[in-house]
Every structure is written in structure tokens, then in C-alpha cells.
Design goal:
mainly beta, YmcC-like fold, 14-stranded antiparallel beta sheet, 14 strands, globular
């Protein structure tokens, strides 16, 4: 089971109006910071039973890269060790994001999933609108994202200016292609997670069909309705069963996690 891939699939949306892409350019970071670390547990559900399938951790470090100050963000995940005999997963994703533009300068992934092994490095030239990897150089649009930088970019969306049902478009480079993508905003509500109950912002994700997902708007995401905008719960149908992801730990958030609903006193 793909652990980091599953979480990153929050960003694998499909078919948006490319003319609206300019609405997603120029976002400034107001959510994450140097030293932030967020941990998630992934549960697989089949026939009403939930199994701890694995975990993933996202971290952010402030560094220098090719003369730019960047957020070096990393997503590392793996299957639960007790299930490695069935399907062993050890994945690592990295992105170097310019702090001024929140655009990626470099992307790296090292994927080990059962018998599948894949390593890839993509260097972005945002001035020339190109992305270069081991297979060649590809033309990309302005403000293009990679699969990991998309998560941090999307956390900075100002959801208050949208109404229920609105689509928020952007574009992403993945496996030598540019995808026109969107999030469908669904409003705000309380959601109960393993960590606790949250006031949350809710949206749907239209998935690209593949080896795990059916495609369609089968993924629902809740992010904390506070200044951090961290994903706290993700639910999705997959080809067999369903998956639930809960935020289970965090360190060095930029702001207090005020989206948590206080427990009622007896």
C-alpha cells in the first residue's frame, strides 16, 4: 500500500480551467515554518474493521539552495512493520520551495513499494518555465507545483473568500506531464479524529484513477480551521475497501493549534 503516495494524492486532482491558474499564483506563506513536523497514521478499512496500515511524517527545514532561501520539505512514510511480509513500503519525497514565491526549485522521490523501485529528481527553472528530470526537459506553466510543494502551497489558500462548491484550480508537474487540478470547497464543520475534535475546513478532491483510486470525487479532506491549516483527517474510497488518515502528532507549529475543540467538562 502506498503510504506517502496516498497522502500526497490529496493533490492529485483532475481537470480544471487552466485560465483560472493565475488565481493561484503569488500566494505568500503564512502557515508553515522552519522546524515544523507533522505525523499521520493511515488506517485501512475492509468489512468494517480498521487496521493500522502505516504512518508518514512531513517536516520542514529552512535552508539555502542555489542562492535561494528555501523550505526543504520532506515526506517519509512506510507500511506497518508487521505487514511488511505482505507488502513492504518505504517512500521518501523531498521538495525545495522558494520562500518568496512558494514555487518548487527541486523535487526528489525515492519510492520502494513491493517489487516497484523508482528514483527521480526534477529541477525546475521557474524563470524559463521548464522542468528537467532524467528523461528530458519539459515545458511547464507559470506557478507550476510538484506533488509535495502542492500541499504546502494549498495550506495558504484563503478559504474565507470562497463559497461552498467553488473550485480552486492550480497546475502540477508529475511523471513528465502537467495536470490541471482543483480543490472543491465544501465549507466548515466539526470533525472527530484520533487526535481529538476539530473545527475544520472541508473540501473534496477529484482523483486521477489509478492502481489504488477509482477516480472521481471520492476523497474528502479536513484541515484545521486556524492559522496553521494542517490536514487533520482524510477519507477516501479505494479499489478495495477504504482508507482513513489522521494527524496523530505535531512539533513546532507556527501558531497554536486553536482549531481543536476543547473537551467538555463533566
Amino acid at each position: 500500500m502506498r503510504i506517502v503516495n496516498y497522502f500526497i494524492a490529496v493533490c492529485l486532482l483532475l481537470t480544471a480551467n487552466a485560465d483560472a491558474q493565475t488565481n493561484f499564483c503569488g500566494i505568500k506563506n503564512t502557515t508553515t515554518q522552519n522546524g515544523e513536523e507533522i505525523t499521520y497514521t493511515i488506517y485501512y478499512a475492509l468489512a468494517g474493521a480498521h487496521v493500522n496500515a502505516g504512518s508518514t511524517t512531513f517536516s520542514n527545514k529552512l535552508e539555502k539552495f542555489n542562492g535561494h532561501t528555501v523550505y526543504h520539505v520532506t515526506g517519509v512514510g512506510g507500511s506497518n512493520a508487521k505487514y511488511d511480509w505482505l507488502y513492504r513500503v518505504r517512500d521518501r519525497y523531498e521538495s525545495y520551495i522558494d520562500t518568496l514565491t512558494m514555487q518548487p526549485l527541486k523535487f526528489f522521490r525515492d519510492v520502494s513499494e513491493g517489487s516497484t523501485k523508482k528514483r527521480e529528481t526534477v529541477n525546475f527553472n521557474q524563470a524559463n518555465n521548464t522542468a528537467t528530470n532524467e528523461t528530458g526537459t519539459y515545458k511547464v506553466p507559470t506557478c507550476v507545483q510538484d506533488v509535495l510543494s502542492t500541499i504546502y502551497y494549498a495550506r495558504n489558500i484563503g478559504f474565507d473568500k470562497y463559497k461552498k462548491g467553488d473550485k480552486i484550480p492550480f497546475q502540477m508537474f508529475l511523471e513528465n506531464q502537467v495536470y490541471n487540478l482543483y480543490i472543491r470547497y465544501l465549507g466548515k464543520e466539526e470533525v472527530k479524529t484520533k487526535y481529538g475534535k476539530f473545527n475544520a475546513i472541508k473540501f473534496k478532491v477529484l482523483l486521477i484513477p489509478g492502481t489504488i483510486f477509482k477516480g472521481g470525487e471520492d476523497m474528502t479532506v479536513w484541515v484545521s480551521d486556524d492559522n496553521n491549516h494542517i490536514p487533520v483527517r482524510i477519507e477516501s474510497q479505494i479499489l478495495i475497501g477504504s482508507i482513513k488518515v489522521d494527524m496523530t502528532g505535531h512539533k513546532n507549529l507556527r501558531y497554536p493549534l486553536s482549531g481543536v475543540v476543547p473537551k467538555k467538562k463533566n
